[in-house]
Amino acid sequence: MAAGTHGRQEIGASLPRAPRPVAVPRVRRLPVVPKPVRGEAFASWVDRVAAKLDVPAGQAAHALGLECRSGTSTTRPKFFGITLTPASLGGLRDATGLPVRELQQMQLARYGRTVLDLTGLDLARKASLRAVTAREWMMPTWSRACPACLAESPVWPLWWRLGIAAVCPVHRCLLIDVCPACEVRLLRGNERIPRGLLTRPPLPEPGECANRPPHGPKGRAGLCRQPLAAIPTVAVPGPLVALQRRVLAIAEGSPATLAGEPVRTAAWFTALRYLTALARLTAGEDDFAVLPGFAAEEFIQDRQRRTDRPRGGGGSQLVAMPATAAQTLAALALTAPVLDASSTDVGVNLLAPWAESLTTLRRALGRTDPLRHTARPAVLDRMVAAVAPRPSRVAGALVATGTRDLTPRHIPHLADRDDYRELMATHLPGTAEASGRRLTALAQARLAGAASWAEAAAVLDMDARRATRAANTLVQRITDPDGFWKAARTAAERMQERGLVDDAARRSALADLREIPHRDLVSVFHPLGRDVTWQRQRHAAAWVWQHFTSGDVREAPAYALGWENETSTESIREGWRRFHTRLPAPAADALTVWGTARLAQKGTQ
Fold first, then answer.
1. Taking residues 472-489, what's their average pLDDT?
2. N or C: which end of the chain has fewer CB within 10 A?
């Protein structure tokens, strides 16, 4: 992938392919339609057409030749306000005679080269819209609005449907998200059928909300009668109004700079999304000082909701569109200092406190960076790299003096259980014991001379996936690197004092131990009144392998290749648990004798 794109499509690739007009049933040319206003949203224009024809908007959509999905009382044009299907474009051409470009300029796809990335939108698949709308900063079935603007004109600008919409630059007020009367987002229409256009009377009065709230009465009484122009607004300080103007100018294609360096407009908005996610995780009280009280309160409440009710998706949820105009205003204001920094050096200094807070947060939670897969442009990538914590925070505290006689061959894949509990567990809070013992073994391999965590896993011939998780994730939980290495060294010294064992030779000798022969187990289990089943043969082999190699039983040869008869992993693990916890001492002693003999046959001990 080219530097600076980081998963975002190149200019032009983010727009759905421009549809060609196709043959559709002949649509009668309308005698007159309102001329679209520059910057007007398509839904706004359709509503004005409906008012001109004195029909419900759903009927106007059919008269305009739009490709629709119809219900009993509403109709929904396909990809309404986002882009035009070939059938819709052909119908509009016949019904209105308007130029194709003028019709396309009213669609959100107009911003596909700047604010939005519509990659993945397939006009042949309705379901493709769901992923795009969840990812992008746009409002496909509702809008924000300025009541003062609507008092002057019935036209709803297209940019009110973008996730960057927060402030009216003309009236210097916060945009409205929700009608205070019906508590439904503006232009939502029927809450159960988002943006469903009414196909039969009664018609709303001009300037009314006209949403149909859920569980409301039917007919005209079911329409919200709230006059939009009468909704109260909140004033916004002048500098933030100017900020909104700058962001809108970039959205319209004006040249953009990021920390003093020229960037594509799409890259600038990618940076905005990344920095918004970072602010959601790390912005503090000092940062909130630049925000009006209402915006800071909304931003903090949103963070609290994310903490109290975490959703799946990780970084994808952190970069999601701000839910309200106030949250958008906060995001624009918090990220502006970095975006507008005079140089990358200044930007790095501004990013440093957030990077430090993120590092502290993820180490406290024992997690990797939740934004590691989030796209960011090359300029921001360099800045983030400059403030990222050194990966050698823990490894850098290792004093590689070696340990007497200890080599990787003498290190089991899981460190001794008692040593781990007494020495290591306190350094790895919230860690499963098996995972902590694995990291301890890797640490002992580092003490024995391995130059990196990856090399430690390799010299131990350890499962790469589990070793990587231990090195990349569990290490983040260590708050006292010096104490961690001191404890690991003490655990290694204890292992030497007990007598070193060639664990590598044992793993090799028992690598083919899939089951213990039936005849060898009869004398073990029959005196205890237990049958020798093929499952017990496998569990016994796993017990011997774990006992002599101190490995993770999940990696025992008896389990590694799965079982026939479509036995589930969960069933196998439950069978092992019962076998292990219910194994009588005489049987354990007998299996130990059998394992010792097996190792002797293989030339080891």
1. 86
2. N
